[in-house]
Q: What sequence folds into this?
């Protein structure tokens, strides 16, 4: 998920910022026997340094680590210093950083969304409470004026599934209204899409992009808490303030002029005024062969925007392989979070302790373990901290488009986005379990820890498509996305569920996602040791893991390996 409440600071003003504290070098014995080297090296992963780094990255000094702020400068300096101290090589020529040009588009006028029915009666929805709209066009203003409304079901065009909600209707210049998630989740029918597990077609970003491809002038999603997997408060917080995007040469000319969400309550009234029942349309949209339905009336909105350009950075360091240095395995985590909201009274710092100071600090510990090895890995290992995940996986998308090592030479990778903070678990949850051959490497090492692999119990929320590994996966690179296990080693499943629900309800993307002295880091350390041994096995095996048959990414992998 993304949220964007930051104060942008030009980088010309950041050069005077104090760098992060110099790291403390870890002494590593060079006398380890090669056969025992991995087991000794995993013990270089330090709970003390890991905890200290999480606290530092999540401190108020770092201001929520938003792209383009003092928090970015401090975070990038910290990572570069740590990697240098550990003796890692820069991954981008002589540089540890990769520039990621971004554009910030901020709505400045709290725009109204005005619906007019065929009788001329108008309903105006309030910004923030009843609707949140914006524009991704990188220009000063965008508008729709008396744009015709069309309900296009789930807004999906999936030829390989024989599904096209846009069939036999021209939406050019019109505003499409869509449901969140996909028909498989709605029906729980495994024969539709992936059943309960959300597909990429269920994601809001897919829906907006497809609407633009179809020529729509406006694109509106009806919010529904359960299929969206978050409440309206997340919508109203996440899509207000500056919204980052890649720099678009055409300034977003082909994007819809207005995109946004409306509450389900307001959608009910909208459909009633068009002589339709929303519940009935929900049911109709779940059926293959659904035909889009014109909604009587039009919609208008005018959006004023402020455009800023920010040069953010990914941070990347390498350990060169001893036998095949041109081939690389990637450990990745996003270093950014939401930043500071200057309009909030009281605590406006979104510290992002769990999300994702934990994963960022985890990268440093993995690097520490690799540098403790008595023998270099046979193939190269990259430690990649990406920017702007909270803005829509932009740093990882930029890396995927401009990789420092060709994707055809990328063996695979492992993404960390929120590490365990409540203690050891009996299992390892794998988001997207069953998708790639990398899982056999993970399973072997998990078994040595007395643990099993378990699937995501909330596959309907589409977590596989909501973190940075996805940008590499969709281009064919096999990626692991392990997460905290589902059963605490002593307190069981209920305890883990309680912790997860408490975080999502009270802290997720909120100022209270702060480091807590009561956190138990033993589980994170055990997970990091697992990730270290798994990745080491992959780089030393000489194999090229693939996606399993039937996954949507296998064709891209096969093509890249063939070429």
A:
């Amino acid at each position: 998920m993304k949220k964007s409440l930051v104060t942008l600071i030009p980088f010309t003003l950041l050069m005077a910022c104090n760098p992060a504290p110099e790291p403390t070098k870890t002494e590593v014995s060079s006398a380890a026997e090669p056969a025992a080297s991995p087991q000794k090296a995993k013990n270089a992963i330090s709970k003390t340094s890991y905890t200290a780094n999480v606290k530092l990255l999540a401190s108020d000094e770092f201001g929520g680590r938003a792209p383009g702020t003092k928090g970015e400068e401090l975070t990038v300096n910290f990572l570069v210093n740590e990697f240098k101290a550990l003796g890692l090589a820069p991954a981008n020529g002589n540089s540890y950083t990769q520039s990621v040009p971004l554009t910030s588009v901020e709505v400045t006028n709290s725009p109204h969304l005005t619906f007019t029915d065929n009788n001329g009666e108008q309903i105006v929805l309030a910004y923030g409470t009843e609707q949140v709209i914006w524009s991704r066009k990188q220009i000063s203003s965008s508008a729709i004026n008396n744009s015709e409304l069309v309900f296009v079901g789930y807004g999906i065009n999936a030829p390989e599934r024989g599904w096209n909600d846009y069939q036999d209707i021209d939406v050019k210049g019109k505003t499409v209204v869509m449901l969140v998630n996909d028909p498989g989740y709605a029906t729980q029918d495994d024969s539709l899409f992936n059943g309960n597990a959300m597909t990429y077609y269920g994601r809001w970003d897919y829906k907006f992009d497809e609407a633009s491809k179809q020529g729509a002038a406006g694109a509106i999603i009806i919010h529904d808490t359960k299929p969206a997997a978050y409440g309206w408060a997340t919508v109203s917080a996440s899509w207000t303030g500056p919204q980052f995007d890649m720099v678009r040469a055409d300034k977003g000319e082909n994007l819809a002029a207005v995109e946004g969400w409306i509450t389900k309550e307001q959608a009910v009234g909208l459909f009633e005024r068009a002589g339709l029942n929303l519940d009935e349309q929900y049911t109709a949209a779940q059926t293959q062969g659904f035909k889009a339905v014109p909604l009587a009336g039009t919609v208008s909105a005018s959006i004023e925007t402020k455009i800023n350009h920010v040069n953010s950075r990914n941070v990347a360091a390498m350990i060169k392989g001893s036998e095949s240095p041109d081939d690389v395995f990637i450990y990745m985590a996003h270093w950014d979070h939401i930043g500071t909201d200057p309009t909030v009274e009281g605590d406006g710092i979104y510290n992002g302790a769990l999300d994702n100071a934990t994963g960022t600090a985890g990268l440093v510990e993995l690097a520490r373990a690799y540098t403790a090895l008595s023998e270099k890995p046979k193939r190269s290992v990259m430690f990649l901290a990406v920017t702007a995940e909270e803005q829509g996986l932009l740093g990882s998308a930029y890396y995927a488009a401009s990789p420092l090592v060709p994707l055809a030479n990328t063996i695979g990778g492992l993404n960390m986005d929120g590490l365990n903070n409540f203690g050891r678990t009996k299992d390892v949850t794998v988001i997207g379990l069953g998708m790639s051959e990398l899982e056999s490497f993970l399973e072997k090492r998990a078994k040595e820890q007395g643990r099993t692999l378990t699937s995501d119990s909330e596959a309907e929320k589409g977590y596989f498509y909501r973190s940075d590994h996805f940008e590499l996966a969709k281009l064919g690179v096999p990626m692991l996305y392990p997460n905290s296990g589902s059963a605490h080693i002593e307190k069981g499943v209920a305890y883990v569920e309680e912790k997860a629900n408490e975080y999502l309800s009270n802290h997720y993307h909120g100022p209270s996602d702060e480091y807590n002295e009561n956190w138990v880091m033993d589980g994170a350390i055990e997970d990091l040791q697992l990730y270290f041994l798994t990745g080491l096995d992959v780089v030393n095996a000489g194999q090229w893991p693939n996606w399993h048959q039937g996954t949507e990414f296998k064709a891209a992998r096969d093509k890249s390996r063939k070429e």
Observations:
- Residues 522-541 form the longest helix (20 residues).
- The two ends are 35 Å apart (CA to CA).
- Residues 105-307 form a domain with the Glucose Oxidase; domain 1 fold (CATH 3.50.30.30).
- The chain has two domains: 33-95+320-562, 105-307.
